[in-house]
Amino acid sequence: MFVVIQEWASEHISAPFRAPELWDCTSQCDIDERTDIWSLGCTLFAIMYGVSPFEYALEESDESPQLAIVNAQIKWPTEPNAQYPNDLNQFVTWMLQPQATVRPRIDDIVIHVDKLISKYSPLK
């Protein structure tokens, strides 16, 4: 069954957005909402910076996407025009924990988004 999940993932999920647990599915592998949280973190990073979280790491080290993803080798851009509040970068980092058991669940994400909106909303 886990090989089927891994094969499906390789056919349907772009490598830079595929959670670490989908690269090598084992019987101890948890495939649940936290797998989608990983992809959400990758998508948010891509919206913020225009590339996947692993583009910068791959450009500098020429490693495989799998190795960069499994080891969560994220390199944050340093361009001045690409700066976001540290709270937002930490939020994305939280979603991109390489171990699924450490990643937040959707309820945690909703609560945190509400806090970020409250903190940074100009309509206080």
TrEMBL record:
InterPro entries, alphabetized: Kinase-like_dom_sf, Prot_kinase_dom, Ser/Thr-specific_kinases
SUPFAM superfamilies according to UniProt: Protein kinase-like (PK-like)
Superkingdom per UniProt: Eukaryota
Domain Protein kinase as annotated: residue spans: 1-117
GO cellular component, one term: cytoplasm
MF GO annotations: ATP binding; protein serine/threonine kinase activity
Protein name: Protein kinase domain-containing protein
Organism annotation: Solanum commersonii
